Amino acid sequence: MTSNTPPTSKGALAKREARLAWGLLTPTITIVSLVILLPLLAIFWISFKPIGLADLRTITPVVKESLRKKGDDYRIEYRVRNSSQSKPIENVSFTDIIPNDLTLSNVTEPCALAGNVLTCTFGTMDPGYSERLRFPVLLNTDKDTAESISEGSKPVVVGKGDSVLTNSEFTLDNFRRIFDSKEFASVLWATVFYTVVGTIGALVVGLFAALLLNRSFKGQGILRGLYLFPYVSPIIAVAFTWVTLFDPFSGSFNVLLLQMGVTEQPINFFGQKPQALLMVTVFEIWRYFPLSFLFILARMQSIDTDMYEAADMDGASPFQKFWYLSVPQLLGILSVLFLLRFIWTFNKFDDIFLLTGGNAGTRTLTVNVYEQAFAISNIGAGAAVAVVIFAVLLCFSVLFLKYVSREEGL
Amino acid sequence: MNALRHGLVTSLLLGVLWLMVVATTVAVVISFTTGDAARPALLGCVVMGLVAGLLTLFINHKVAAWVIGLALAIAFVYSPLSPIVLAEGLESSRKLIAGILLGVSTAIPLEYMLRGLGPGKLTRHVFEEAVIRFLLGVGYIFFTAIVLVPFYVMVMTSLKSQQALLKNPLDFSIDFTQGTALFRSYFELFTQFNFGQYLWTSFYVSVLTVVITLLFSVPGAYAVARLEFRGRAAFSRSILLIYMVPLIVLALPIYIVYSMTGLRNTVSGLILIYPVTTIPVALYMLQGYFRGLPEEVEEAGLMDGLSRLKVIWKITLPLALPALVSVSLYIFMIAWNEFLLAFMLLDDPNKFTLTRGVSMLNSSEIPRQHLMAGSVIATVPVMVLFLTLERFMTRGLTAGSVKG
């Protein structure tokens, strides 16, 4: 008797479907790995490299040829130099074809003339090397033609500088540098404060906003649209508006506070140590509460109303209904939102960069990447910070996949 | 708590608290619109709050409560116990306006909050209802204020002149007599700062980003949502993971590669990189939508002899059209608002996108109102899109997410 188990091998149809699936996915996978995975690998590589912003320019030997006149004699001058002041170039040489109407004489080391081909070999060129080679020349034509033909044949230069990006020089200095510095403690504190307070704040404020709008009244739609404004508008516009509003000299908010007698002196909200971090966090809450409110509101509106009617019958008060009925129903979406927002707040760069530029104790890890790489021009150190960020994120994503993917059904 | 659950105590307390809220709000509104000095006074708030609470509790007629509240507020504003102190030497009509504002925003909400309250002991239900109505009122004022004030300041600052701004930063009243000179900041941005071109660059970069993103993500999302293949779960998860890689981490190597290949400082370089940052988002959103579509319709199509690709083209896509609109809008918004990459990769003022152009205005040599006018120009297009297609937008936001 045969057993009734489903076939174990794939049928033709299933195979065709899988092939189609991979066909549809290939373009996406290719482009995403090109532009996301490769850079990630590059970041790891760079973080172990002693590389600054200036090293991005390729190092090459430069040769300039010119025809000069000294007294009655003419000579050809080759100006040879190393474009880098700090790195040597290996195996440098150049060849130049001397036109027929010119005759070189007295060709000396490091050059040699074979037929009408001039070859000069330099070997290793030291950093900042610069030399002029001059050879007397006899002209068989007039000066102008000689000039144009001699300079018309460009010397062919060989020799490549050793690029820091590709050589085998590695260092741990970048990591030592970012971990050792006293700043690191303050960067870490700013990151933790900004992320934790910002996330929780946006959730709590979003919950309140959702409670306000979870009832039908005239203008509910308008208010809902209005409360989404902070999130929808370009970051650059709202960030600069906040800076304008809270400016210590011409900001309206400070004038208002002075006038109401809250403070005696204008407060430099984005420029002083304790307030600046608080202000960027408040900004973060202001900008992202709409997102949590939208999600929470959607969840609230899908809660079954029967439950509330039953509670009414049993004489539950409004606060009791909220605490014992609504909150348990919302816990799922709240925890998902918390985890996602936590990661996104941790990743945030633009907001702080635009508001304070990372000054006054607001430099988070992400701002530190920019600061190290571009302000201090040390790309290696910037990459090292990026690696740290990536490591932290990897830990988060384990958590994320464990909890969120279950909620989202992935 | 139990002592509070007494009609008299509750209404007096809510009256005082509400008056503090309203007096502060009205003072801020007066300051922000006229630039006159106005501030709330605690003693006035307490006294008027007690009176208003008491009156509202005992007057059971709606309109009567309104009228009496209004009269009360006006009387208080002219008395030495005014809850709002205006600057010395202002004409009397200003006080009247303050009184009317205060009266309206006290009497009507307070009557609503204290509805159903009697002077005696209250049940828990009635008491909490009243407290909730009070909190709702405070909430609406608070949220509307924190959202509106920055946008109000943005628009109004862009219309002021430098001198007016420095003279009184609170004075946002508009002098209509100057006619078109009102819009001089905008005019200068378009004539001297090349903003027309930035607007156009931003527009076509965003549109191209949307198109390219959809081209890649629609097939990908469909495959993940519908087709069976090995590695589907792993792929689905890696979308989420990639979604979480911060842009600043990628920006550094991209900057290096672009510097070396000469793609830096070109708009095409930007168009090349934007879709890649949005494809994971779009994949994530679209696969959710595709999963929500009824599978039976597609199967019917397959039965009738359509190929998979035809099914996608003729059945799935038309059904998912609203979803595509949502995703497109969301991606357009991301691309339009994008700042970091544009800032790092573009240096040449001829190739700026709008956000990059606005960030250029943030300098001490360029007046503030230009910066704000630039911000308004950057904000208005997304706002118009958002307000006209709000339904799609909200859906796009909730489905996609939680990307910041």
Summary tags:
heterodimer; A: 410 residues; Immunoglobulin-like; 2 domains; 15% strand; B: 404 residues; mainly alpha; MetI-like fold; two-stranded antiparallel ribbon; 18 helices
Reconstruct the topology from this structure.
The complex is a heterodimer of chains A (410) and B (404).
Chain A: H1 12-47, E1 61-70, E2 73-82, E3 89-97, E4 102-104, E5 111-114, E6 117-125, E7 130-139, H2 143-152, E8 156-161, H3 173-180, H4 183-213, H5 220-227, H6 229-232, H7 235-245, H8 252-259, H9 273-301, H10 306-313, H11 318-347, H12 350-355, H13 365-375, H14 379-408
Antiparallel strand pairs in A: 1-2, 2-7, 3-6, 3-8, 4-7, 5-6
Chain B: H1 7-34, E1 38-40, H2 42-58, H3 62-78, E2 84-86, H4 92-113, H5 124-159, H6 162-167, H7 184-192, H8 195-226, H9 232-243, H10 247-261, H11 267-292, H12 295-303, H13 308-319, H14 321-337, H15 340-345, H16 354-360, H17 368-388, H18 390-400
Antiparallel strand pairs in B: 1-2
Helix pairs in contact in B: 1-2, 1-4, 1-5, 2-3, 2-4, 3-4, 4-5, 5-17, 7-17, 8-11, 8-14, 9-11, 11-14, 12-13, 14-17, 14-18, 16-17
Write structural notes for this entry:
- The complex is a heterodimer of chains A (410) and B (404).
- With 410 residues, chain A is an alpha+beta fold.
- Chain A folds into two domains: 60-161, Immunoglobulin-like (Sandwich); 173-408, MetI-like (MetI-like fold).
- Chain A has helices spanning 12-47, 143-152, 173-180, 183-213, 220-227, 229-232, 235-245, 252-259, 273-301, 306-313, 318-347, 350-355, 365-375, 379-408; strands at residues 61-70, 73-82, 89-97, 102-104, 111-114, 117-125, 130-139, 156-161.
- Chain A has a four-stranded antiparallel beta sheet. Chain A has a four-stranded antiparallel beta sheet with strand order 5-6-3-8, with no helix packed on it.
- The radius of gyration of chain A is 34 Å and the shape is elongated.
- The model of chain A has no long low-confidence stretch (mean pLDDT 84).
- Chain B folds into two domains: 7-150, no CATH class; 187-400, Orthogonal Bundle (MetI-like fold).
- Chain B has a two-stranded antiparallel ribbon.
- With 404 residues, chain B is mainly α.
- The model of chain B has no long low-confidence stretch (mean pLDDT 86).
- Chain B has helices at 7-34, 42-58, 62-78, 92-113, 124-159, 162-167, 184-192, 195-226, 232-243, 247-261, 267-292, 295-303, 308-319, 321-337, 340-345, 354-360, 368-388, 390-400; strands at residues 38-40, 84-86.
- Chain B contains 18 helices and two strands.
- The interface between A and B is large, with 102 and 106 residues.
